[in-house]
Amino acid sequence: MTDYGKRFRLDGKVALVSGAARGIGAEIALALAQAGARVIVSDVADGGGRATAQAIAAAGGSADACVHDVTVEAQWEAAVALAQHRYGRLDVLVNNAGIETAALLAQCTLDDFRRVMDINVNGVFLGVKHAIRAMAKPQGQGGSIINLSSVAGLIGTTGHAAYHTSKGAVRLLTKAAAVECAQLGTGIRVNSVHPAIVATDMGTNFIQHFVDLGLAPDYATAEAAIKAAHPLGRFGEPADVASAVVYLASDAAQWVTGTELVLDGGYTAA
Ligand SMILES: NC(=O)c1ccc[n+]([C@@H]2O[C@H](COP(=O)([O-])OP(=O)(O)OC[C@H]3O[C@@H](n4cnc5c(N)ncnc54)[C@H](O)[C@@H]3O)[C@@H](O)[C@H]2O)c1
Question: Active site residue: 163, 219, 247, 267, which one?
């Protein structure tokens, strides 16, 4: 008989989470560790996410922090090598690091547009590339790659064109990688998750930008209007995203690849 509790566990697996110093990435790292994975926490800030690694260790899990800018290919090689040297394998990559900017298209500078693409798209591409090199059968054991897109990768809004463009690219990079990895027999699944507004620094900034762009008179008005667009009546919590990532990382999702898992309290269904 299938042991479903075991299928959702990650015991024995090794995971790398980018941008895990705070917010959604930190919660994903904690959740993967609680489900049994050994975790490489990586970030460009905060000593590579040292506080997150310490929180995992304090909870009885296993984690290392790694200073890692996702736009630098040599730092991807070093982060993946850390997993391989420390644990001999890499099973799960979560491409979580990302930034957001706001500007009306007529005012958006090419530098700002490029910066968003560099971190949100090029950074994910490099992660996918180096995870495939580490995970692909027959040298590797296969694995699961999970990319943080957004509802912004599915629909547009005023004032965030660069961010929408980047998250739309992540959605299709995911599908292309999923098909290629499946058809080449690598044993690697690749999926994207698409949260609506989640209560983090980025979520707060996103709401504030509506005020800064003159689209809402004040923060409270913008927050109420955006919250009302989520039929479940609340913003997401990092745990809502982390739970989905644990599922996609686990053997319970063995037949799931190239999918876009929308986590939005009904935002895009309305
Ligand atoms: N918060 C939301 O409402 C929301 C909604 C949908 C999708 N997302 C996506 O979820 C992911 C995490 O978002 P969050 O809300 O936790 O953001 P956040 O701003 O709170 O945290 C982002 C983390 O990424 C790190 N980072 C930034 N640039 C980096 C780089 N070049 N290299 C490595 N790390 C870098 C930061 O240091 C930070 O720790 C992002 O990809 C974001 O686009 C967020």
Answer: 163
Query: pLDDT tens digits for 121-180?
Result: 999 999 999 999 999 999 999 999 999 999 999 999 999 999 999 999 999 999 999 999
Q: How far apart are CA 170 and CA 193, in angstroms?
A: 10
For the whole model, what pTM was predicted? 0.98
Q: Which amino acid is at 165?
A: T
- Lining ligand 1 with CB less than 6 A are 18-19, 21-25, 43-45, 68-71, 96-99, 119, 148, 150, 195, 197-198, 200-203, 206
Ligand 1 mean position, distance from CA 177 (Å) = 22
What is the maximum span of the chain, computed from C-alpha positions, in angstroms? 60
Torsion of CA 79, 80, 83, 88, to 10 degrees: -150
User: Is residue 158 within 8 Å of 212, Cβ to Cβ?
Assistant: no
DSSP for 12-58, written as a single string = T-EEEETT-SSHHHHHHHHHHHHTT-EEEEEESSHHHHHHHHHHHHH
Nearest atom in ligand 1 to 152's CA? 6
Domain annotation for the chain: domains and CATH numbers: 4-196+238-263 (3.40.50.720), 199-235 (no CATH)
